[in-house]
Structures are given as structure tokens and as C-alpha cells.
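User: Second chain of the day. Same drill as before.
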Amino acid sequence: QVQLVESGGGLVQAGASLRLSCVASGRDFSNYAVAWFRQAPGKDREFVLGISRGNIGTYHARFSISRDNAKKTVYLQMNSLKPEDTAIYYCSASPDGGVKTQMWGYDYWGQGTQVTVSS
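Assistant: Same format as last time:
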């Protein structure tokens, strides 16, 4: 069993940067794949970035993902933020260690952190 807690969200202006953190509790966190999803008002939840148990991250033009297994933490670094990045950002974890882009691929979810980007 893994519990996830996100933090680092807030209100920023367009062009700013934010770093979100996802802290996990539970055993064997290093074996999990972790992904960030986001959900904007009125829209479906969508995949942002993921990182595998082997520390292989997916690509995004403005964002990056990293993990510190000793701290049981995954980070989402977001640069050059745009108003369309406004959403609740969720951290998720999968025990099979591989990154999936669909929500059904993840067994554990955090409560989310709000990111609001003003123009």
C-alpha cells in the first residue's frame, strides 16, 4: 500500500516556474512507476509526465520529472507556465514499474494540488 501527498501548487503568472512534489509512504517505493496527471475544470484528467522504476522519464517540452528514492519523492518541474496549464495536478503510482499514459494503469493516487497560472 502506498499513500501519496502532493504539494507545491499555487498561483503564478504566465512564464513563471513551479516545482511540485509527490511524497510517498509505504514500502518498495523505488519499484513503482510514478506519473503526474492533471485535470482542468470541465475536462478529463490527462497524463503529463511519468518516470519508471528504472528512472526513465517521459518527455515534455516545458516540464521535467525526477525522483529521489531515498526521500520517496517525485518532482515535477514546470517551466514557462501558461494559463492553459491551470489545473489540479495529481500524482499516481503503479507497482509494476512501467509508465502508462492511461489512468487505469495506476493503483494509487494523491489528493491533488492546484496550479493556477494567470495571464
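The chain has a mean pLDDT of 96.

User: Great, on to the next one.
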